[in-house]
Design a protein that fits this description.
Shape: globular
Largest sheet: 7 strands, mixed
Number of domains: 3
CATH class of the largest domain: Alpha Beta
Bound molecules: flavin-adenine dinucleotide
Structural class: alpha/beta
Strand content: 15-25%
CATH topology of the largest domain: FAD/NAD(P)-binding domain
Helix content: 40-55%
């Protein structure tokens, strides 16, 4: 008789776990509350335009592509490389490599030339080492010592680059390098300002050459995994919210769906929000007080407000779009606020009807500004319309005349992200990026529930698609070890 696994949530973590376990012959059932699979890696369509429900692009980080290769899916899904540029006022600087970025920024910030030289030397040295490490397969845990020795031979200054970043955040690191407050702020806002400076290196590497988008949109990526799971006999049940993880004598024995259906299984894996999983699906009576305290103290990652625009084509729009040297733009507005603009149909015209363009405009947001509006629908929609309008006005600083071309418009607030994925407070990537605030878990101790495993972007910091997939890889291996033990 095949051993069975129930997986809660069909995001990247749930689908990756399901892919490995169904391929290994386990009976796998994934239960997903939404009617679409993918979690944040899904899409929605409005009048022929395809928009991303979460990120506009992902990084592989030495994880995503190796996993797809291991599953034999590398050939089945095409990914398009996505470049980035920094823009402010009338200036545009594509980010292609450390020296080019340094030289172009030095033209606009001549007083910071030396600081830029020192900073990008650090980026070049640290980034080279970082790239080698992630590409070495280090994330998959085997042969770590030889990999580190090899790294030291090829990148002898890597320990210095790590030392520079040690204990720093993105913001404090830039404070050390740059006297010009405008440049400093622009660098802080290239990603989460409070993230660990070690991740700043990862950010530069991903901007230079490791950012990708699946051809056909994000849903196409999730669908590839769903097809794989089904080909191996697994099932992905959509529109099937899980209400409870059933626990008996310290052991997970099955789940109850919201419609009351009770299902038994050998293992339960939750790829849903960890707080929701523990506090609502498992229940505090089955959890150690230490874990409850950790979960209640841990702040989520910052949410996003996004506007999705379907644009009518015209010669004026074409002229305005010439500002895009790369499809992803981090734009500093006249008042110093930062927004992200992604020209979704630049390299993948399939996401817009012929002759039209799909655009994403987003910025980091604050959940406390939205939470009170949960109880007041009219006030919520009014605020959503106002914020969307503000964001379009900001995008017009970069693309004059944008508004006149809008045919289709939609928006997502932190409450929208929360509603569709149950990520607490609309968290984009699990826990907060501030290393001082993110919790550390030792699940063997913190969550000693037999036959149960959590996976996904809350189980390791920082979160993101590579984290979701690598945590799935490790847990699938663990279950396969237990099956044969
Ligand atoms: C705007 C935005 C930008 C981002 N940018 C990036 C980026 O540039 N790079 C990057 O790597 N990552 C980025 N991320 C984060 C990335 O998308 C996520 O970290 C990753 O997709 C999380 O995958 P997951 O499987 O862990 O969780 P999720 O995608 O959240 O999947 C969890 C699934 O569980 C389901 N679920 C929850 N509760 C239940 C229940 N009770 N019953 C059944 N199903 C349930 C949900 O519906 C969901 O489908 C971004 C996210 C957002 C929103």
């Amino acid at each position: 008789m095949h051993k069975s696994v129930i997986i809660i949530g069909a995001g990247m973590a749930g689908l990756t776990t399901a892919a490995y376990l169904s391929r290994a012959g386990l009976k796998v059932d994934v239960y997903e509350q939404h009617t679409l699979p993918g979690g944040y890696i899904s899409s929605f369509v409005r009048e022929g335009f395809t928009f991303p429900a979460g990120p506009t692009s992902i990084t592989s980080n030495g994880i995503v592509f190796p996993i797809l290769k291991e599953l034999g899916l590398a050939e089945k899904r095409e990914f398009l490389h996505v470049g980035h540029q920094m823009s402010w006022g009338g200036h545009d600087v594509p980010l292609r490599n450390a020296r080019q970025a340094r030289d172009e920024l030095s033209k606009w910030f001549p007083g910071q030339r030396e600081a830029l030289q020192r900073y990008f030397r650090w980026v070049e040295i640290g980034g080279g080492g970082f790239r080698q490490l992630v590409e070495s397969g280090m994330m998959f845990g085997q042969g770590i010592l030889p990999k580190v020795l090899n790294l030291l031979v090829k990148h002898p200054l890597m320990p210095w680059a790590s030392w520079v970043a040690r204990g720093q955040t993105n913001r404090s690191l830039h404070q050390r390098y740059f006297g010009d407050p405008d440049l400093r702020q622009m660098f802080d806002e290239l990603a989460y300002p409070i993230m660990a400076a070690q991740n700043t290196l990862g950010m530069w590497i991903s901007y230079f050459d490791d950012t990708w988008t699946p051809a056909g949109g994000m849903q196409a990526f999730a669908n590839t995994l769903v097809r794989f799971v089904r080909e191996y006999g697994g099932e992905v049940h959509l529109g099937a919210p899980v209400e409870r993880i059933r626990v008996e004598k310290g052991r997970a024995i099955g789940i109850t769906l919201r419609d009351g259906t009770r299902l038994d299984t050998d293992w339960v894996i939750s790829a849903a929000d960890l707080r929701h999983t523990c506090l609502e699906l498992i229940g505090c009576q089955h959890l150690p007080p230490g874990l409850i305290a950790k979960l209640e103290a841990a702040p989520p990652s910052e949410p996003v407000f996004a506007v999705f625009l379907g644009l009518r084509g015209s010669p004026e729009l074409e002229r305005a779009f010439q500002r895009f040297h790369e499809p992803h733009v981090i734009f500093t507005c006249a008042d110093g606020a930062t927004i992200q603009i992604a020209w979704l149909s630049k390299d993948d015209p399939s996401v817009a009807p012929p002759g039209k363009q799909a655009l994403f405009v987003g910025r980091l947001d604050r959940y406390p500004d939205w939470e009170p509006l949960k109880a007041d629908e009219a006030a919520y929609y009014a605020r959503k319309a106002t914020v969307a309008d503000e964001l379009i006005a900001r995008a017009e600083e970069f693309l004059p005349g944008l508004r006149a071309h809008i045919e289709v418009q939609d928006a997502a607030s932190p409450l929208t992200y929360e509603r569709y994925t149950s990520n607490w407070q609309g968290a984009t990537t699990g826990w907060n990026w501030n290393p001082a605030l993110a919790p550390r878990f030792n699940f063997a101790k913190d969550l000693p529930l037999k036959n149960f495993y959590p996976v996904g972007h809350y189980t390791f910091n920082p979160g993101g698609v590579p984290t979701a997939m690598i945590t799935a890889w490790y847990i699938a291996r663990e279950i396969l070890k237990q099956r044969t033990a």
